[in-house]
Amino acid sequence: MELTTEAARENAEAALKFPSLRSDAWGEERRELLWRATESVTRFVAEPVITAPWNASVVGPKRDFCWRKYRFADFRLIRRAFGGTINDVVVALAAESAARYLQHHGERVKGGHFRLMCPVSVRREDEHGALGNRVSGIFPIVSTSPKPIVERLDKVRWEMEHIKHNREAQAMELLTESIPSIPPIAMAPTLLVGTAFDPTRLAARFPAPVLPSNVPRPPLLGFNFTCTNVPGVQVSQYLAGHKVLDNLGVLMLGGTLGYGVAVGSYNQNLYFNFICDPRLMPDLELMASGVDDAFNELLAAAHAQSPSPVATEA
User: Fold this and answer.
1) How far apart are CA 278 and CA 263, in angstroms?
2) How far is the C-alpha of 288 from the C-alpha of 100, rounded, in Å?
3) Rg (CA), the chain
4) Domain count, the chain
5) Neighbouring C-beta atoms of residue 74, cutoff 10 Å
6) Contact (Cβ atoms closer than 8 angstroms) between residue 174 and residue 34
7) Residue 35 lies in a domain
8) Which of 274, 252, 279, 275 is closest to 56 using CA atoms?
9) Are strands 141-143 and 113-121 parallel, antiparallel or unpaired?
10) Any residues with CB less than 8 A from the CB of 309 and at least 6 apart, and which?
11) Cα angle vertex 286, ends 252, 62, to 5°?
């Protein structure tokens, strides 16, 4: 009862402290960020994206998982050759693989676009070393048509620079903080998952139909898949006296998000971890192979772009 009373009091205090939207309650920077966040949310409706096969129904309970491992030094070489960031390269590879996947399956994608969700850190410099995370999200829009990989990277770099210039990550964080939080009691029904009264069991036994590609699918007002890049330690780690050889990450799927890719670095390597609902994406290895192909093409282009050691000495 003491904890319940304390929680109720804190919720009431938080509601009373909720800032109004009057100009005298917000600084100029906050008003601008809030306006940018509103624009970003509005684009979900104003600029819908295609409904890919992995978005064509509600996700079921089954999962397929595979992963790829690359040398981190190769990504640094690509970054030096073409500019941008490691994250730009990651997004370009994931986007190009998805576009080639759709082409392989004969999807009608001409003139269409993907929207990705990329979690990003919004920690300030004065918060370095502090416990906990401060994470927001950005939503780059990329073409669904396959492209030469260097051209794909250039377009991704431009899109990411545009997002950074508009400070969309900070704007979305402010919008999230400004909305009153959902009371924890609203999450109580999730405690039934896995019990005899699990409301999702029926949905798992009788999944919703998958919209086929030969009929027009409605546009998607959300995003197509998550592509997250998590920096990790670049030295070996040990667990119970054993050396950790690889470090893999698994994304959660839900709603109509039937595919996602989690990217993480560990011990001078970069890992692409692919996960899907096999009912919506029965050939996950094809998506992973697309990243392989795009990476090899981009690495070859980077080697061709970089001067050879002999030329440098001369």
Assistant:
1) 20
2) 11
3) 22
4) 1
5) 18
6) yes
7) yes
8) 279
9) antiparallel
10) none
11) 35
Q: Is residue 178 part of a domain?
A: yes
The reply to whether 8 falls in a domain is no
Output the CA–CA distances (angstroms, integers) from residue 162 to 167, 173, 224, 297, in the order listed. Answer: 9, 17, 20, 26
Q: Is 225 left (phi over 0), alpha (psi -120 to 50) or beta?
A: beta
> How would you label 81-112 residue by residue, b for 16+ Cβ within 10 Å and e otherwise?
bbebebbbbbbbbbbbbbbbbbeeeebebeeb
- Choose among 287, 264, 301, 274: nearest CA to 104: 287
Nearest residue to 295 (alpha-carbon basis) of 199, 165, 173, 152: 152
Which pLDDT tens digit goes with each residue over 174-183? 666 666 666 7
pTM, whole model, 2 decimals? Answer: 0.81
CA gap 246, 236 in Å, rounded: 9
Write out the residue range of the structural domain in which residue 149 sits: 20-208+216-313
The pair of three-digit structure tokens given for residue 20, joined into one six-digit string: 């109004």
DSSP H or E run through 72: helix 72-82
DSSP sequence for 246-296: --------BTTB-EEEEEEEETTEEEEEEEE-TTT-S-HHHHHHHHHHHHH
Does 3 map to a domain?
no
How crowded is the C-beta side of 2, counted as CA atoms within 13 Å? 0
Which residue shows structure tokens 């330690």?
Answer: 233
pLDDT digits (tens, 9 = 90+) for 119-146: 876 666 665 666 666 676 788 889 999 9
Contacts of residue 104, defined as CB under 8 A and 6 or more positions apart, other chains included, come to 286
Which CATH number characterizes residue 163's domain?
3.30.559.30
| Cβ contact 147:95 at 8 Å | no
Give pLDDT < 50 ranges for the chain.
20-25, 310-314
- CA triplet 201, 202, 206: central angle to 5 degrees? 120
What b/e readout covers 120-142, taking b as 16+ CB neighbours within 10 angstroms?
A: bebeeeeeeeeeeeeebbbbbbb
Q: What is the pLDDT of residue 314?
A: 40
* Token pair recorded at residue 17: 């402290």
